[in-house]
Amino acid sequence: MNSSPDSRVLQQRFTTHLRTGVRTTIPGVAPDRLAHYRHAIFHMVKDTMESAYPVTCANIPRRKWDHMVKTFFARHACTAHQVWKLPLEFYTYAVENSWDEVYDVPYLSDLLAFEWAEIEVFNMEDVAPAAFVATGDWRETPLVLNPEYRLLSFKYPVHQEAKRARLLKQQGAWFVLLHREPVTGHVQFTGLSPWLAFVTEQLAAGITVKDILEYAPQLGITVTVELEADTVAFLEDMQRRQFVFGFRP
Amino acid sequence: MVGLGFRREFAEEMISGTLISPDFIEFAPENWMNIGGYWKKMLHRVVEKYPVLCHGLSLSLGSPEEPDSTFLRYVKSFLEEYKVRIYSEHLSYSKCDNAHLYDLLPMPFRMDAARHMAARIRKVQDYLQRPLAMEIISYYTPVAPEMSEADFINEVVQRSGCQLLLDVNNIYVNAFNHQYDAKAFIAQLPLDRVAYIHMAGHEQVAPDMILDTHGHPIADPVYALFEWTIQQIAPVPVLLERDFNIPQMQDLQAELTRLKAICHQQWKHHELVA
Ligand SMILES: [Fe+2]
Prior knowledge:
Radius of gyration of chain B: 18 Å
Strand order of the largest sheet of chain A: 2-3-4
Order of helices and strands of chain A: HHHHHHHEEHEEHHHE
Helix content of chain B: 40-55%
Pfam family, one (chain B): MbnB_TglH_ChrH
Keywords (chain A): DNA-binding
Distance between the termini of chain A: 78 Å
Strand content of chain A: 5-15%
Number of domains of chain B: 1
InterPro entries (chain B): MbnB/TglH/ChrH (IPR007801), Xyl_isomerase-like_sf (IPR036237)
Largest sheet of chain B: 8 strands, parallel, barrel
Number of helices of chain B: 10
Strand content of chain B: 15-25%
Protein name (chain A): Putative DNA-binding domain-containing protein
Domain NGO1945-like C-terminal (chain A): 146-238
CATH architecture of the largest domain in chain A: Alpha-Beta Complex
Bound molecules: fe (ii) ion
CATH topology of the largest domain in chain A: Outer Surface Protein A, domain 3
Shape of chain B: globular
Number of helices of chain A: 11
Oligomer: heterodimer
């Protein structure tokens, strides 16, 4: 009878050790070389997270950060074939496991979401916009937006501030728009008021400025001439910045 | 044909082609698929200029579990879209218990593993409708071996009908780290199956250990082993891999030129025939 385990079991033992550090002995495997693999893999994962999340990593004490990356890699089965997508799994894992509380970094998920969104918008597959013309009526014509964007909402203003004490003092409702410039591929960030975030969301759904303004009172918003002018001025600015492409023909 | 691995760090230089002009490029589909924006434009520009070979990283054909069919579908359409001439992968695995480890791990050199891997390669070849060129990886420890590495490779190649990607630096590094003779090892391989060659640099980090870094120029003894190796086989594309510690383009071009000169010298008979 052959008592030696089959290759599948050996591979499972080998990789379980590499991920978790749980002690294992496999015939022929030199301990120092096993350590080399474990070190190289962890270094690579950590490096990937630090390039994806430079602000988060700088904001968190080093031991805490290392512990996060170790825990993530040991407990989470990474599914991304593409290494650049691995940071998304880290962010998702942090949210699912309530790391804001576990690690006492209340703005952690905001910060990870913010840093991930930049990578995502920069790399996202090209999306063809709807047909548009350059001129139209800002109030009455449905607008055509740049489809390569993400609108994020945060509890903490992580797009403006990195210091813990200051972030914690500014808990509220914050909105940031990220969009990719069509020609250069650069990602632009725009902080939005709750009103402009709402407007952006509605415009993306094909609602006109006029209809959005008409609906506003139901949200408890008083529509003034000033609000209307500011809204249009914002959209004109966003056209210059290539977030608003134009008007539906 | 002597090519160069395409990297973001020197994408501009490769597209302009003034300081460096390889005969072809190679990249990992994983690093470029499902990407838009700036890098998609750059990819299109480089692909217009050079023939493309692809070198996969994450198929993990030595894994206990089945290959990811969604991913394979993407690979297939990517290879078609970019008219990829050779798709290579590794005699290795990088995924286990459905978790990717993002490293090329050493296979247990055992009959069950060889059979399993060969079956997986066959399946993927059938699906992609092309042979895979499987690279002999550098590795730092054996894992419960019951057969020699060369026997393992022969078994996989014979059973799967795959081609071989001979990374001469890997073999040099393995021969040093596991104390065997590189030429004797190469002589045991099914050399008629070699479809592609890789060359790269390494670094000795301990008296008994060389790391396959892809971060240094090709070492002289690896050139020598390359020169000997290509005398044993018919002409195939040769690739220079440089992933870290990127030098001046002139230095990379000098390595390409040196490889080309060796190919020309050793394969001139074939060139005349062709
Ligand atoms: Fe290689």
